[in-house]
Structures are given as structure tokens and as C-alpha cells.
């Protein structure tokens, strides 16, 4: 048992984890307890390999999992897919700083608030897809500020409000596909400064205001297939990207063959669903024009700063060379 690395105890009738039987198996890399009848895990005394281990508890009846300090050392990935989790606050893992990946997909979570996630700040991947999530309150993910990937697909989200993603400054991948988000303002995602991939696929979305992405820090690919966005909106967004005004690039995974498309991206023709269409359409147009002028001015200023910095370095180097020559001349005379 001391050298055991992979143990598969799936498809049995375990109601509890046999932690006492495995207390000396401290080199485990993979522990599989899928397809059992485990309802709760408390006092987890199994340790894993120094390189890290995976615990898979998918397809049980689990609703509670608590790891106390100094328990489950070496556990870096926990899979709780397809269980009976309704209250995510009963998954208490915040003291387990080694954990990097957590899968709670295919459960029965209906909402999230600032106290729902009792998870370690070091977590990098969180999967909450295929639940019944309808509402997410502001700061719900504030405790997991180092997340790189967050999956919220296949839920019942209709709105994304300001502050929902507060604190997620390191997030790179966000999956909001297969929800019911008919309208989205990019301003609600301003906290995600380094977001690179956003999936909005199959939300039947008819409005996506992308103005806030004009100042996004990194290139951002937004997957929009399966929506109802207008060709006017798509043409303007593609023009902003191609002209360097925006770093947001719309894309699709599967390009349809028989639909109206621009650059292989489907869109709805006609005057409807204009991304600038509103009661204050003229004001919106003027604001976007002002933002473009501001971006152009910023780029010019950055170029001027670079040239100025180069000139300063060149002049300073010349001054130093002249000083060295003068010192050499004085030394020769002396």
C-alpha cells in the first residue's frame, strides 16, 4: 500500500470513504470513488503524492464535503460532478491551499452569493456548468481571485449584473454559453481585465453592447454562434477590431453554410438589433466617436513617449561619450 498510486473503487456500494484503510497510502495520484452511495465526506485523512493527486467522487449522492486544515495533503483536483449538491457552501475547502481544480458540474445549485463559495483563494479552475443557476449576486467569486477558468454554461442565467465578477483579475477563460442571456453590456465584465476567451454561444442573444471593450488590455475572442446579432453590429465590431480601435474579436466554432455571414460569422440582416440602437442613439454614436478619437490620441501619445524616451537615451549617451572623450584628453595632457 505504501507505493500505491492509482486506486479504482468505482461502482461499489460505499456509503463512506474508507479513510482508515488508506491512511498509509500516501503516494496516491488518482483515487476513483465514482458510482457509489457516498453522501458526505468529513474528516478526510487520506494524503496524496507529493506531485499532486486527483479525487473523483462523481455520480454519488454527495451534498457535503469538508476538508479541515492539514487534511488531504497533495490533493490538487477534486471532481464532484453529478451529485446532489444544492448548497455550494457545504463544500468547505477554503483551508486547502493546494487545490487547483474543482468540478461541481451537473448538480442542483440554483444561485450564488458572496458566502456560497467556501473555496481556497489559490483555485485556478472552477466548473459550475449544467446546474440550475438563475442568479449570481455581486462578489460571489471574490474569494477565488486567482481563477483562470470559470465555466457557467448550461445554466438558467438571464442577466449578468455589475459586480458579479468582481475580483477576478486573473480570469482568462469565461464560459457563459447555453444560458438565456438575451442582452449583455460589456461594461459588466470590466473587472475581467485580462480575459482572453469568452463564450456566449447559444444564448439566443439579440443585443451585445461592446463599447466597454474598446479599452480592453488584451486580445479578446468572443464566441457568438447560436445568437441573433445583427449584421450591422457585426460589421461595426469587425471594423473596430481590424482598424485597431478594439481588441475584441468575434468568432464562431462552427461556421454555418447556409446562413447570412460576415467573415464566416452568422448574423441577422436588416435594421433590427443594432448595437447602437437606443433612445439616445445619437448620443451613443457621438460617445463611440469620442472614444475612438481618445484611443487614437492615446496611441499617438504613446508613440511620442517612445520617441522622446529614445531621444533622451541617445542624447544622454552622447553626453557621456563626450564626457569620456574630454576626460581622456585631459588625462593625455596631464
Automatic annotation (TrEMBL):
<keyword id="KW-0677">Repeat</keyword>
<dbReference type="InterPro" id="IPR001611">
    <property type="entry name" value="Leu-rich_rpt"/>
</dbReference>
<keyword id="KW-0378">Hydrolase</keyword>
<dbReference type="InterPro" id="IPR003591">
    <property type="entry name" value="Leu-rich_rpt_typical-subtyp"/>
</dbReference>
<dbReference type="Pfam" id="PF13855">
    <property type="entry name" value="LRR_8"/>
</dbReference>
<dbReference type="InterPro" id="IPR050328">
    <property type="entry name" value="Dev_Immune_Receptor"/>
</dbReference>
<keyword id="KW-0732">Signal</keyword>
<keyword id="KW-0645">Protease</keyword>
<dbReference type="InterPro" id="IPR032675">
    <property type="entry name" value="LRR_dom_sf"/>
</dbReference>
<dbReference type="GO" id="GO:0004180">
    <property type="term" value="F:carboxypeptidase activity"/>
</dbReference>
<keyword id="KW-0121">Carboxypeptidase</keyword>
<dbReference type="Pfam" id="PF00560">
    <property type="entry name" value="LRR_1"/>
</dbReference>
<keyword id="KW-0433">Leucine-rich repeat</keyword>
<protein>
    <submittedName>
        <fullName>Carboxypeptidase N subunit 2</fullName>
    </submittedName>
</protein>
Amino acid at each position: 500500500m505504501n507505493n500505491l498510486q492509482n486506486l479504482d473503487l468505482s461502482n461499489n456500494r460505499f456509503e463512506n470513504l474508507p479513510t482508515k484503510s488508506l491512511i498509509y497510502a500516501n503516494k496516491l495520484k488518482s483515487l476513483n470513488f465514482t458510482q457509489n452511495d457516498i453522501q458526505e465526506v468529513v474528516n478526510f485523512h487520506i494524503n496524496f503524492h507529493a506531485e499532486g493527486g486527483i479525487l473523483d467522487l462523481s455520480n454519488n449522492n454527495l451534498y457535503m464535503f469538508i476538508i479541515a486544515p492539514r487534511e488531504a495533503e497533495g490533493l490538487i483536483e477534486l471532481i464532484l460532478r453529478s451529485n446532489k449538491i444544492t448548497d455550494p457552501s457545504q463544500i468547505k475547502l477554503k483551508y486547502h491551499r493546494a487545490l487547483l481544480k474543482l468540478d461541481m458540474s451537473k448538480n442542483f445549485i440554483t444561485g450564488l452569493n458572496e458566502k456560497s463559495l467556501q473555496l481556497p483563494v489559490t483555485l485556478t479552475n472552477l466548473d459550475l456548468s449544467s446546474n440550475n443557476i438563475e442568479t449570481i449576486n455581486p462578489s460571489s467569486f471574490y474569494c477565488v481571485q486567482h481563477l483562470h477558468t470559470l465555466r457557467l454554461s448550461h445554466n438558467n442565467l438571464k442577466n449578468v449584473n455589475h459586480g458579479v465578477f468582481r475580483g477576478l483579475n486573473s480570469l482568462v477563460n469565461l464560459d457563459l454559453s447555453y444560458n438565456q442571456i438575451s442582452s449583455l453590456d460589456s461594461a459588466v465584465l470590466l473587472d475581467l481585465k485580462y480575459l482572453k476567451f469568452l463564450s456566449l454561444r447559444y444564448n439566443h442573444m439579440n443585443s451585445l453592447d461592446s463599447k466597454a471593450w474598446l479599452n480592453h488590455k488584451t486580445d479578446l475572442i468572443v464566441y457568438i454562434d447560436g445568437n441573433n446579432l445583427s449584421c450591422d453590429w457585426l460589421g461595426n465590431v469587425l471594423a473596430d477590431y481590424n482598424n485597431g480601435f478594439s481588441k475584441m474579436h468575434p468568432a464562431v466554432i462552427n461556421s454555418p453554410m447556409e446562413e447570412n455571414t460576415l467573415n464566416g460569422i452568422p448574423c441577422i440582416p436588416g435594421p433590427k438589433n443594432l448595437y447602437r440602437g437606443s433612445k439616445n442613439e445619437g448620443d451613443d454614436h457621438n460617445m463611440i466617436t469620442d472614444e475612438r478619437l481618445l484611443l487614437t490620441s492615446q496611441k499617438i501619445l504613446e508613440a511620442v513617449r517612445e520617441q522622446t524616451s529614445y531621444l533622451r537615451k541617445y542624447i544622454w549617451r552622447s553626453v557621456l561619450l563626450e564626457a569620456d572623450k574630454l576626460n581622456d584628453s585631459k588625462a593625455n595632457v596631464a
